[in-house]
Specification:
Elements: E1 15-22, H1 34-37, H2 49-64, H3 67-70, E2 73-76, H4 80-90, E3 125-127, H5 146-152, H6 177-193, E4 198-203, H7 205-212, H8 221-228, E5 236-242, H9 267-272, H10 275-284
Parallel strand pairs: 1-4, 2-3, 2-4
Antiparallel strand pairs: 1-5
Helix pairs in contact: 2-4, 6-7
Length: 286
Amino acid sequence: MEAAAAINVYPFHRTKTIHLVRHAQGFHNLNEDLDSLLSEEFFDARLTPVGWKQVDTLRKHVQSRGISKKIELVITSPMSRTIETAVGTFGGEEHSDDLNVPPLMVENAGGNNRPAISSLNCPPVLAIEDCRELIGVLPNVRRRSISEYRPLYPAIDFSMIEHDEDVFWKPDVFETEDEITARGLKFFKWLLTRKEKEIAVVTHSAFLIFSMLHFGNDCDLFIQSEIRGSFANAELRSIVLIDRSRIGSDSSNNFPGGIPRGLDLPVDIAIKKNPEFQKRLKSLVK
């Protein structure tokens, strides 16, 4: 019984594989001085040249491990650095005007000096407000208007973002730890309602830290460190999200057994003939 306490089992259809990715290096990551970060120079910071090299390396990793073929949906925070990381890592090859599909990213989007990225043969990319960075005060966590993003990233789905302008960012108030944590838990519960079984989420450091702090309480300290440890730029960490409260509605692949149904001798008959065993069994499955 002690050995069993260290492990657990869950129905497969109550789980999802989530690939958590922190964005690659942005220009704001080059400056650790808080006063300097208050400069508008870092507004919605884009990826540095080193950041794009990190994206190229991560792309090779997800392709060599077969991860990119399994992912059914890519979710990104609606910030330039996360969008660039998402399309660079999980998007198609270079876009051509001959293709009858819109690009995920146009050539030289926002002056990034990168070729256009195709939306062909890659999972859909969905922008979600709930997985943004800690909001407030710093210009690097204030997003652009959605109408500015759309021409640069034509194939990204921004339909779930309600406001064109950033109505959540405040110049003098940071989001509290409780608020970002609640936002994170709300986001992960929402993931359970999605039909996709394998999802990539491209997001930010503080969002990941405060969200992950509330998972893994029943795990060994080493496992907790794997779940809760801070993320490096362009780090990918794969987790299994478990639905223990029937939040989602995934259908089961379980098979009910032989047809027609009947007693599977000799165990079923033994149970049927032993009232004490039936009583014990019922107490165990309550």
